[in-house]
Amino acid sequence: MSRFASGGVVYLVGAGPGSPDLITVRGLRVLRSADVVLHDALLAPELLDEVGPDAEIVSVGKRGYCVGSTKQETIHDLMVRYARAGKSVCRLKCGDPCVFGRGGEEAEALAEAGVPYEIVPGVTSAAGALAAAGIPLTHRAAGQAVVLVTGHHDPDSRDCTLDWDALARLPGAVFYMAVRHVAKIAAKLGGCGLPLDTPAAVVESGTLPGQRVVVADLGDIGRLADGAMITGPAVFVVGEVVRFREKLLSLAAESEGAAR
Q: Exposed, middle or buried: residue 229 (CB in 10 Å: 0-12, 13-18, 19+)?
Protein backbone atom coordinates (compact mmCIF):
# COMPACT_ATOMS: atom_id res chain seq x y z
CA MET A 1 0.00 0.00 0.00
CA SER A 2 1.35 3.37 -1.05
CA ARG A 3 2.16 5.62 1.89
CA PHE A 4 2.00 8.96 0.13
CA ALA A 5 -0.35 10.62 -2.34
CA SER A 6 1.02 10.89 -5.88
CA GLY A 7 1.18 14.09 -7.91
CA GLY A 8 -1.36 14.54 -10.68
CA VAL A 9 -3.86 12.24 -8.96
CA VAL A 10 -7.16 13.05 -7.24
CA TYR A 11 -8.14 10.97 -4.21
CA LEU A 12 -11.84 10.91 -3.35
CA VAL A 13 -11.51 10.25 0.38
CA GLY A 14 -14.31 9.37 2.78
CA ALA A 15 -13.80 11.08 6.13
CA GLY A 16 -16.42 9.03 7.96
CA PRO A 17 -19.67 10.01 9.69
CA GLY A 18 -18.37 12.71 12.02
CA SER A 19 -15.84 11.66 14.63
CA PRO A 20 -12.36 12.45 13.25
CA ASP A 21 -10.89 9.11 14.33
CA LEU A 22 -13.26 7.19 12.06
CA ILE A 23 -11.36 8.07 8.90
CA THR A 24 -9.54 5.06 7.45
CA VAL A 25 -5.77 4.61 7.72
CA ARG A 26 -5.48 4.96 3.95
CA GLY A 27 -7.59 8.11 3.98
CA LEU A 28 -5.48 9.69 6.72
CA ARG A 29 -2.24 8.93 4.85
CA VAL A 30 -3.57 10.59 1.73
CA LEU A 31 -4.83 13.59 3.72
CA ARG A 32 -1.47 14.10 5.43
CA SER A 33 0.56 13.92 2.23
CA ALA A 34 -1.66 15.77 -0.26
CA ASP A 35 -0.63 19.05 -1.86
CA VAL A 36 -4.22 20.31 -2.00
CA VAL A 37 -7.24 19.45 0.15
CA LEU A 38 -10.72 20.24 -1.17
CA HIS A 39 -13.02 19.61 1.78
CA ASP A 40 -16.72 19.40 2.60
CA ALA A 41 -18.46 21.75 5.04
CA LEU A 42 -19.44 19.37 7.84
CA LEU A 43 -16.08 17.72 8.50
CA ALA A 44 -14.58 17.55 11.99
CA PRO A 45 -12.16 20.51 12.23
CA GLU A 46 -9.57 18.20 13.80
CA LEU A 47 -9.12 16.44 10.47
CA LEU A 48 -7.86 19.61 8.83
CA ASP A 49 -5.20 19.81 11.56
CA GLU A 50 -3.72 16.68 9.94
CA VAL A 51 -3.05 18.47 6.65
CA GLY A 52 0.60 19.11 5.83
CA PRO A 53 2.01 22.59 6.63
CA ASP A 54 2.64 23.41 2.97
CA ALA A 55 -0.64 22.12 1.61
CA GLU A 56 -3.38 24.35 0.24
CA ILE A 57 -6.77 23.96 1.92
CA VAL A 58 -9.88 24.92 -0.03
CA SER A 59 -13.43 24.76 1.33
CA VAL A 60 -15.90 23.50 -1.27
CA GLY A 61 -18.73 22.70 1.09
CA LYS A 62 -22.39 22.28 0.35
CA ARG A 63 -24.92 23.28 2.99
CA GLY A 64 -28.60 22.55 3.41
CA TYR A 65 -30.56 22.62 0.17
CA CYS A 66 -27.70 24.24 -1.74
CA VAL A 67 -27.96 27.63 0.01
CA GLY A 68 -24.48 29.16 -0.02
CA SER A 69 -23.05 26.00 -1.53
CA THR A 70 -20.15 25.50 -3.90
CA LYS A 71 -21.46 24.49 -7.31
CA GLN A 72 -20.65 20.93 -8.28
CA GLU A 73 -19.18 22.11 -11.59
CA THR A 74 -16.78 24.36 -9.67
CA ILE A 75 -15.57 21.38 -7.63
CA HIS A 76 -14.99 19.39 -10.82
CA ASP A 77 -13.01 22.26 -12.36
CA LEU A 78 -10.84 22.66 -9.25
CA MET A 79 -9.99 18.96 -9.06
CA VAL A 80 -9.01 18.84 -12.73
CA ARG A 81 -7.02 22.08 -12.62
CA TYR A 82 -4.98 21.14 -9.56
CA ALA A 83 -4.28 17.63 -10.85
CA ARG A 84 -3.17 18.90 -14.24
CA ALA A 85 -0.79 21.23 -12.42
CA GLY A 86 0.89 18.13 -10.99
CA LYS A 87 -0.62 18.41 -7.51
CA SER A 88 -1.80 15.51 -5.39
CA VAL A 89 -5.39 16.33 -4.52
CA CYS A 90 -7.36 15.02 -1.55
CA ARG A 91 -11.06 15.57 -2.14
CA LEU A 92 -12.16 15.06 1.47
CA LYS A 93 -15.82 14.10 1.69
CA CYS A 94 -18.17 13.33 4.58
CA GLY A 95 -19.10 9.69 5.13
CA ASP A 96 -18.36 7.53 2.10
CA PRO A 97 -17.72 9.31 -1.21
CA CYS A 98 -20.13 7.12 -3.15
CA VAL A 99 -23.05 6.84 -0.70
CA PHE A 100 -25.09 9.96 -1.50
CA GLY A 101 -21.81 11.88 -1.60
CA ARG A 102 -21.58 12.62 -5.34
CA GLY A 103 -18.39 10.59 -5.50
CA GLY A 104 -19.63 8.86 -8.61
CA GLU A 105 -20.24 12.19 -10.34
CA GLU A 106 -16.78 13.43 -9.40
CA ALA A 107 -15.10 10.23 -10.53
CA GLU A 108 -16.97 10.50 -13.84
CA ALA A 109 -15.82 14.09 -14.32
CA LEU A 110 -12.21 13.12 -13.62
CA ALA A 111 -12.35 10.15 -15.98
CA GLU A 112 -13.80 12.29 -18.76
CA ALA A 113 -10.98 14.81 -18.23
CA GLY A 114 -8.36 12.06 -18.35
CA VAL A 115 -7.28 12.70 -14.74
CA PRO A 116 -6.16 9.67 -12.68
CA TYR A 117 -8.15 9.17 -9.50
CA GLU A 118 -8.64 6.77 -6.62
CA ILE A 119 -11.72 6.28 -4.46
CA VAL A 120 -10.82 5.81 -0.79
CA PRO A 121 -13.98 4.53 0.92
CA GLY A 122 -15.16 5.78 4.28
CA VAL A 123 -17.54 4.75 7.04
CA THR A 124 -20.99 5.82 5.87
CA SER A 125 -23.49 7.41 8.26
CA ALA A 126 -25.89 4.47 8.16
CA ALA A 127 -23.19 2.27 9.68
CA GLY A 128 -21.35 4.81 11.85
CA ALA A 129 -24.21 6.82 13.33
CA LEU A 130 -26.37 3.79 14.03
CA ALA A 131 -23.48 1.95 15.67
CA ALA A 132 -22.84 4.96 17.90
CA ALA A 133 -26.53 4.99 18.80
CA GLY A 134 -26.51 1.30 19.74
CA ILE A 135 -28.59 0.26 16.72
CA PRO A 136 -27.18 -2.56 14.56
CA LEU A 137 -27.57 -1.79 10.87
CA THR A 138 -28.61 -5.40 10.29
CA HIS A 139 -29.52 -8.32 12.55
CA ARG A 140 -30.43 -11.88 11.57
CA ALA A 141 -33.53 -11.70 13.74
CA ALA A 142 -34.73 -8.51 12.04
CA GLY A 143 -34.97 -9.48 8.38
CA GLN A 144 -32.74 -10.16 5.43
CA ALA A 145 -32.37 -6.74 3.85
CA VAL A 146 -31.69 -3.08 4.52
CA VAL A 147 -31.93 -0.23 2.05
CA LEU A 148 -30.17 3.15 2.03
CA VAL A 149 -32.44 5.93 0.79
CA THR A 150 -32.08 9.63 0.10
CA GLY A 151 -34.66 11.66 2.00
CA HIS A 152 -33.59 14.96 0.47
CA HIS A 153 -36.73 15.54 -1.60
CA ASP A 154 -40.16 16.32 -0.21
CA PRO A 155 -42.08 13.02 -0.45
CA ASP A 156 -45.06 14.89 -1.88
CA SER A 157 -43.07 16.65 -4.61
CA ARG A 158 -42.50 15.59 -8.21
CA ASP A 159 -38.77 15.42 -7.50
CA CYS A 160 -39.31 12.43 -5.23
CA THR A 161 -39.44 9.24 -7.31
CA LEU A 162 -39.17 6.69 -4.51
CA ASP A 163 -41.26 3.52 -4.67
CA TRP A 164 -43.00 3.80 -1.30
CA ASP A 165 -44.84 0.49 -1.70
CA ALA A 166 -41.52 -1.31 -2.17
CA LEU A 167 -39.89 0.51 0.75
CA ALA A 168 -42.79 -0.37 3.05
CA ARG A 169 -42.26 -4.08 2.31
CA LEU A 170 -38.59 -4.07 3.29
CA PRO A 171 -37.51 -5.00 6.84
CA GLY A 172 -35.22 -2.01 7.25
CA ALA A 173 -34.53 1.39 5.71
CA VAL A 174 -32.13 4.22 6.52
CA PHE A 175 -32.94 7.66 5.13
CA TYR A 176 -30.16 10.19 4.61
CA MET A 177 -30.76 13.97 4.54
CA ALA A 178 -34.32 13.45 5.78
CA VAL A 179 -34.52 15.84 8.75
CA ARG A 180 -37.13 18.08 7.13
CA HIS A 181 -39.31 15.21 6.03
CA VAL A 182 -39.38 12.64 8.84
CA ALA A 183 -43.11 13.02 9.46
CA LYS A 184 -43.99 12.84 5.76
CA ILE A 185 -41.76 9.82 5.19
CA ALA A 186 -43.34 8.03 8.14
CA ALA A 187 -46.80 8.86 6.80
CA LYS A 188 -45.92 7.57 3.33
CA LEU A 189 -44.61 4.28 4.74
CA GLY A 190 -47.62 3.89 7.01
CA GLY A 191 -49.99 4.64 4.15
CA CYS A 192 -48.36 1.89 2.12
CA GLY A 193 -48.96 -0.73 4.78
CA LEU A 194 -45.99 -0.55 7.16
CA PRO A 195 -47.46 -0.97 10.67
CA LEU A 196 -47.46 2.24 12.68
CA ASP A 197 -45.93 0.41 15.66
CA THR A 198 -42.78 -0.34 13.63
CA PRO A 199 -39.83 1.03 15.63
CA ALA A 200 -37.98 4.04 14.23
CA ALA A 201 -35.23 6.40 15.29
CA VAL A 202 -33.57 9.64 14.29
CA VAL A 203 -29.86 9.96 15.10
CA GLU A 204 -28.54 13.52 15.04
CA SER A 205 -24.79 14.31 14.93
CA GLY A 206 -23.96 10.62 15.09
CA THR A 207 -20.52 9.69 16.56
CA LEU A 208 -20.00 13.27 17.81
CA PRO A 209 -20.16 14.52 21.43
CA GLY A 210 -23.47 16.28 20.70
CA GLN A 211 -25.15 13.14 19.39
CA ARG A 212 -28.88 12.84 20.13
CA VAL A 213 -31.19 9.90 19.51
CA VAL A 214 -34.98 10.04 19.29
CA VAL A 215 -36.71 6.64 19.34
CA ALA A 216 -40.43 6.07 18.77
CA ASP A 217 -42.94 4.05 16.81
CA LEU A 218 -43.41 4.99 13.17
CA GLY A 219 -46.69 6.71 13.99
CA ASP A 220 -45.05 9.04 16.53
CA ILE A 221 -41.51 9.58 15.25
CA GLY A 222 -42.31 12.66 13.17
CA ARG A 223 -43.99 14.49 16.05
CA LEU A 224 -41.25 13.59 18.53
CA ALA A 225 -38.44 14.51 16.13
CA ASP A 226 -40.08 17.88 15.54
CA GLY A 227 -40.51 18.37 19.28
CA ALA A 228 -36.84 17.59 19.86
CA MET A 229 -35.96 20.27 17.28
CA ILE A 230 -33.69 17.95 15.34
CA THR A 231 -31.83 20.06 12.81
CA GLY A 232 -29.23 17.65 11.47
CA PRO A 233 -27.06 16.27 10.18
CA ALA A 234 -29.07 13.18 10.97
CA VAL A 235 -30.16 9.79 9.69
CA PHE A 236 -33.65 8.33 10.03
CA VAL A 237 -33.91 4.55 10.46
CA VAL A 238 -37.07 2.46 10.30
CA GLY A 239 -37.24 -1.24 11.13
CA GLU A 240 -37.02 -3.94 13.77
CA VAL A 241 -33.28 -3.36 14.26
CA VAL A 242 -34.21 -0.28 16.33
CA ARG A 243 -35.66 -2.55 19.03
CA PHE A 244 -32.18 -3.88 19.77
CA ARG A 245 -30.99 -0.47 21.00
CA GLU A 246 -32.77 -0.77 24.35
CA LYS A 247 -31.60 -4.34 24.83
CA LEU A 248 -27.98 -3.61 23.96
CA LEU A 249 -27.84 -0.50 26.13
CA SER A 250 -29.41 -2.41 29.02
CA LEU A 251 -26.92 -5.26 28.72
CA ALA A 252 -24.04 -2.79 28.52
CA ALA A 253 -25.25 -1.05 31.69
CA GLU A 254 -25.54 -4.37 33.51
CA SER A 255 -22.06 -5.35 32.43
CA GLU A 256 -20.65 -2.00 33.58
CA GLY A 257 -22.42 -2.33 36.91
CA ALA A 258 -21.08 -5.85 37.43
CA ALA A 259 -17.56 -4.67 36.64
CA ARG A 260 -17.76 -2.15 39.47
A: exposed
Q: Which of 137, 142, 139 is nearest to 174 (CA)?
A: 137
Confidence class for position 252, pLDDT limits 50, 70, 90: confident
For the entire predicted model, the pTM comes to 0.92
Q: Positive or negative CA dihedral for 91, 97, 101, 105? A: positive
Residues 166-192 pLDDT 10s: 999 999 999 999 999 999 999 999 999
Distances (CA, A) of 220 to 172, 197, 216, 260: 17, 9, 6, 37
Alpha carbon distance 56, 35 (integer Å): 6
User: CA-CA distance, 116 to 89, in Å (whole number)?
Assistant: 11
Which of the residues are catalytic?
A: 40, 62
